[in-house]
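TICKET #2291
ISSUE: user wants both folds in one file
ATTACHMENT 1:
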Amino acid sequence: MNISLRQLKVFLAVAQHGSFSRAGEDIGLTQPAVSRCIRELEQELGLKLVDRTTREVTLTEVGASLSATLARVLDELESALRDTHGLAEERRGRVRVASAPTISANLMPECISACAARYPDITLMLRDQVQTLATDSVRHGEVDFGVIVASEGTDDLVGEPIMVEPFLVVCDRSHRFAKQSQVTWKELNGEKLVLLDYASGSRPLIDRALAEHGAYCQIAQEVGHAITVFRMVEAGIGISIMPALALPAMPGLPENGGRLVALPLVPQLDRTIMLVRRKNRTLSPAAQSVWELIQQITANTPHALAAKEAKAAKAAITTKPTKTASKP
């Protein structure tokens, strides 16, 4: 049956007021509109619900039975709709977020702290994983969303860039680069490099840049964590190329007794950090709140990404990665 909620509400108003005109005044309809709703409802049911005379409107036996049941059903329906609307405003529960290690260590702690302060009824659970695993966790629904490095192979996800950050050269203070204000990609030719491995979202970007600038390097070590990279550079195993977000994990500056320095690479190479979630899946109110909170926090960082730049950065990630050029 093609019966509308409006028709049922009109009928109930007529039953309560015993008048088409008073029912119309109560629900904001004209008397002809009320009459039409009742007629359409009766036609759809194939039953007479009201008897109307010039003086009064009375319910038929069937109409009286329907009225008694309908009042309770509509009350329950309105209650259910109010509860559902309340869920849309609810900010509570557990939100699971996957992120790559440098992001987990240097961006997410602030986000977790801010979430606890702003939404005390939301528990933000971080899944600290390498890029490939973090992306798979989002894809398989193991987390609500992820914070990852923009890369190929994520076209099946909905992504929103939130910030960009440059890559830097990291070397020991005894290295010849330490006296320079910046380093060109070409100058890296012949250097031994300690890099994050291919589970990292940054590695394909670095490989491509080395090849494009003709920097033939020896990969001395490939490791999984930024702190390991820094310790190996300290030990003289090689120099490194790291994203700016990893620098808080770097040992102290030379003037404070540390051995490592970080220098700009020219031309500048950036990586884009983005929020990703599954396509055709709506975030829960709690997860949406956390998503927006991370947007707000990153908007206040030195590497904040404007909306226009974000779209351009996302569109630019189309070139296939090239293997690192090895020293002949």
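ATTACHMENT 2:
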Amino acid sequence: MNRKELIAQIREKQSFLCVGLDTDINKIPQCIIDEAKAKDGDDYIFRALCEFNALIIDATAPYCVAYKPNLAFYEAYGVDGILAFEATVDYLKEEYPNHFIIADAKRGDIGNTSKMYAKTFFEEYDVDALTVAPYMGEDSVTPFLGYDDKWVILLALTSNKGSHDFQLTEDKDGERLFEKVLKKSQEWGNDENMMYVVGATQGQMFEDIRKVAPNHFLLVPGVGAQGGSLQEVCKYGMTKDCGLLVNSSRGIIYASQGDDFAEAAAAAARSLQQEMAGELAKRMK
């Protein structure tokens, strides 16, 4: 999906919501587990992951423009988990082809290895975007940038407490590490193929981000369970083209542990979408 198509989806749905599919067997409602075990016995994990994801997707698709399966939650279950990730991507492509798919895998290695990671996610899985770690520099990132209508989402200023350990450190001229990442990476990609991860908990720091990257889309985790403010994110980070994909995972997919989990997920997604529509009306031209 290219930039123009993504912006069109945001305008049409009046939403820039990304639903994070951080699917954990230990948090899936018991009704799903019981049904999967009844059909597959001890080999229930693949079915449970797929069934839960499909029901969450069906419930939330009207209110979001993107989905972000986090690879850690699938790789943890070995082959069954990887197959469930593949099946989830296939389900999205078949049933909801206009939704943007982000593989949250945070890859990045020496050039030859990054080339194979890029082949995996952009050819084999054919997702729209992949999160990438910038620490190893240009040759670890550029192999991901050679695909038409595919996106690198580079870690810039994250929402976790430990982000302050390195990302805010300053050089002798007062330039912070995340600012170096933003500036240098724009020599490799552009706002048609590169986004940045900026945590919602960073608040007013979005102003500093926009000084360096005024037009790039930002993937923003941390709204909801991590306490980030959607209003602050929009106030300091929204552009005339929106420029934001705001992710919510736990606050949506685990909104209920009961049999009504899909309905609760839909309600949580709808509530965020309605807030987003209000922000878009105020700021998006």
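RESOLUTION: both attachments delivered.
EXTRA DETAIL ON ATTACHMENT 2: The mean pLDDT is 93.
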